[in-house]
């Protein structure tokens, strides 16, 4: 069965997961992985192929049987010159694009042919495995398709919806910048004109700036455009620079079922939704019913970190955003106000942290 035919049966589930790729991997890797699987199932287990189609349609909401392929000599499967464990490959393709290793997977109790069982057949049913924390840094993900913001509503706003703070390595540079305009461009130029919809990082001075930072600043160029759709409570980022920008948004990662620490790479000309207030509001409502700590933990979801030109993560020399030459932190006001209102009603934390803790 060809990939195009496969999409005809359960295109929504497949296309959703193929909207992302890991790092700079080739565009066709996931398609080749699916083609390889279809050939194996047609040859060895046609009934499982129908089972897989049904599983993907229902997204695992109903109990399903194992979908198996023969185990190779070393247990791995090669797709386009890359070898990996079969259940990791197809859990990555169909469920978690940021999945990095088998240490992040645990088979459900009813899976009879899970990889750990050591049998001749391996279950690759993506809904026969659960995601577990493995203490590894997830890879950088790159959206293949742009998520465009809705048409801007032509009315001014005097309310600041965000604050932008600029950093070079682990040093804050300049003052906090309030943002009121629903569209704001953050570039690397030195335009001295005061504008409510532009932040030029080239104007910021730093006596401790090194040559790496200087070189990075020269490549920021047109930078990034942030669009705030107030009526929907969404924030979009569009890369205007020839160099990519790298975004870490826990809200975005939650929407796509990624690891909370995942970094997304937005290439030139691409746009991505980096925050959705409706999602945050739902999570906050649920957390408020559980505990003070669960609610307070959502503070991290109101902060978005974005680096210019240089990325960070498992596939980069820099493991933390504070190691990148030029980056910004975006503080979103609305979710912080919601959070503050909820925490105020809940009273002080049950186990406050102090110097005596």
UniProtKB/TrEMBL annotation:
Zinc listed as a keyword: yes
SUPFAM superfamilies: SMAD MH1 domain, SMAD/FHA domain
InterPro entries documented for this protein: Dwarfin, MAD_homology1_Dwarfin-type, MAD_homology_MH1, SMAD-like_dom_sf, SMAD_dom_Dwarfin-type, SMAD_FHA_dom_sf, SMAD_MH1_sf
Record-linked PROSITE patterns: MH1, MH2
Gene3D superfamilies: 2.60.200.10, SMAD MH1 domain
Localization of this protein: Cytoplasm; Nucleus
SMART domains (alphabetical): DWA, DWB
Record GO terms (molecular function): DNA-binding transcription factor activity, RNA polymerase II-specific; I-SMAD binding; metal ion binding; RNA polymerase II cis-regulatory region sequence-specific DNA binding
Boundaries of every MH1 domain copy: 12-138
Sequence ranges assigned to domain MH2 in this UniProt record: 161-357
UniProt record similarity statement: Belongs to the dwarfin/SMAD family.
Protein name: Mothers against decapentaplegic homolog
């Amino acid at each position: 069965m060809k990939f195009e035919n496969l999409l005809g049966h359960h295109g929504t589930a497949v296309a959703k997961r193929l909207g992302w790729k890991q790092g700079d991997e080739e565009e066709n890797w996931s398609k080749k992985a699916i083609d390889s699987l279809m050939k194996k199932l047609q040859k060895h287990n046609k009934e499982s192929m129908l089972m897989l189609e049904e599983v993907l349609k229902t997204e695992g909401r109903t109990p399903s049987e194992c979908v198996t392929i023969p185990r190779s000599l070393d247990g791995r499967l090669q797709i386009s010159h890359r070898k990996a464990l079969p259940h990791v490959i197809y859990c990555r393709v169909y469920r978690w694009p940021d999945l990095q290793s088998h240490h992040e997977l645990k088979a459900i109790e009813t899976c009879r042919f899970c990889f750990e069982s050591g049998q001749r057949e391996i279950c690759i049913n993506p809904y026969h495995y659960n995601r577990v924390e493995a203490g590894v840094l997830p890879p950088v993900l790159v959206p293949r398709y742009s998520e465009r913001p809705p048409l801007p509503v032509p009315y001014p706003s005097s309310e600041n919806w965000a604050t932008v703070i600029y950093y070079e390595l682990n040093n804050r540079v300049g003052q906090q910048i309030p943002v009121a305009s629903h569209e704001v461009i953050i570039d690397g130029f030195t335009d001295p004109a005061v504008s409510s919809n532009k932040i030029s990082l080239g104007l910021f001075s730093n006596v401790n700036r090194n040559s790496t930072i200087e070189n990075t600043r020269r490549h920021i160029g047109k930078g990034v455009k942030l669009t705030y759709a107030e009526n929907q409570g969404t924030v979009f980022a569009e890369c205007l620079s020839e160099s990519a920008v790298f975004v870490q948004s826990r809200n975005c990662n939650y929407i796509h079922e990624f690891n909370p620490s995942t970094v997304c790479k937005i290439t030139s000309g691409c746009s991505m939704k980096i925050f959705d207030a409706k999602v945050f509001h739902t999570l906050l409502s649920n957390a408020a019913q559980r505990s003070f700590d669960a609610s307070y933990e959502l503070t991290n979801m109101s902060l978005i970190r974005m680096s210019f030109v240089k990325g960070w993560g498992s596939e980069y020399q820099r493991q933390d955003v504070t190691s990148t030459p030029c980056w910004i932190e975006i503080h979103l006001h609305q979710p912080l106000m919601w959070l503050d209102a909820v925490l105020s009603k809940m009273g002080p934390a049950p186990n406050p942290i102090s110097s005596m803790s």
